[in-house]
Amino acid sequence: MRTPVVMTLGMVLAPCGLLLTLTSTLTPGWRLVKGFLDQPLDLVLYQGLWDMCREQSSRERQCGQRDHLGYFAAEPVRVARGLTVTSLAVTGLGLLLATLGVRCWRDEPHFALAGLSGVVLFTAGLLNLIPVSWYNHFLADRTVLPAQASPVTVQVGYSLVLGYLGSCLLLLGGFSLALSFAPWCAEHCDSCRKAPPSSARRSSISTVYIDGPEPALTPAIKYYSDGQHRPRPDQLGAASQRKAGFPMPRPPPRAYSNPVDVLDGEKAPNSEPSGSSLSTRPCGSALPCDSDL
């Protein structure tokens, strides 16, 4: 049996989503801050969930910058830390279930386990999408996510974009794997329909049997079926001794008639006296004459 397309698609999208969400969580590129008055014009400050880096076009990136404004203490950052780590753990669990459910070394996949892994991966995508969307919502709000006043500008970083893409891939991969529940549900429902009921259902209409004399029926229709007379069930033992039924009319006897006129030609054309000899009497018929008999 070939691996279903939904399982193959889920097994491709889910690891890609895991890779993108992991990169988004660890890299310090959720927000870009630039335009400092007392700093070089090409200075860019990259802010993430765990680190803050400083980069110039003519120098290398310097990470581990001090947080003077309390950026890491902001509520969106703290919530994003917890939810992204939880999302990574749930994603790992979902991939483990998917590996056990999708057929790799068996003849047929385990549809129920593959569908469960899809639900877990879909949940992981939601857990990562919530902090990313919330952080993006307060990206330019300097009261929630502290930043220097204008003319300093804030922009979306690459880590936030990777977080969105990873969440979408996890959602799509989880939904694709969750479609594996369809064959399992169909097989389970068919087995439930074919299974015999545990207890016979009591009929809503009660049947009452009354013992009494059998009503007299017309002999013409009494115990007569298929054109043959059959005795009553209680008379099966005495059927050879006693017969019941009605006499069938018999046709009258038919008399035999010969279509050939045997007397034809016995008399001669000229009548002769009664005393004449019968041997000279011609017979015009091929049959023997009565006089010869």
Instruction: Indicate the proportion of strand residues.
Output: 5-15%
The SSE string, one letter per element, is: HEEEHHEHHEE
Strand order of the largest sheet: 3-2-1-4
Distance between the termini: 101 Å
Radius of gyration: 54 Å
**Total helix count?**
5
Secondary structure tally: strands: 6
CATH architecture of the domain at 5-26 and 70-145 and 158-188: Up-down Bundle
Largest sheet: 4 strands, antiparallel
Unreliable runs, pLDDT <50, ≥5 residues? Answer: 271-281
The pLDDT mean sits at: 75
Structural class: alpha+beta
Shape: rod-shaped
InterPro entries: Claudin, Claudin_CS, PMP22/EMP/MP20/Claudin
Membrane topology: Multi-pass membrane protein
Protein name: Claudin
Family: Belongs to the claudin family.
Q: Would you mind describing this structure in some detail?
A:
With 293 residues, the chain is α+β, with helices and mostly antiparallel strands. It has a domain at 5-26 and 70-145 and 158-188: Butyryl-CoA Dehydrogenase, subunit A, domain 3. It has five helices and six strands; from the N terminus they run H-E-E-E-H-H-E-H-H-E-E. The strands form two sheets. Strands 3-2-1-4 form a four-stranded antiparallel β-sheet. Strands 5-6 form a two-stranded antiparallel ribbon. A hairpin with a 4-residue loop joins strand 2 and strand 3 (52-55). Helix 1 (5-26) packs parallel to helix 3, helix 1 runs antiparallel to helix 4 and helix 3 runs antiparallel to helix 4 (158-178).
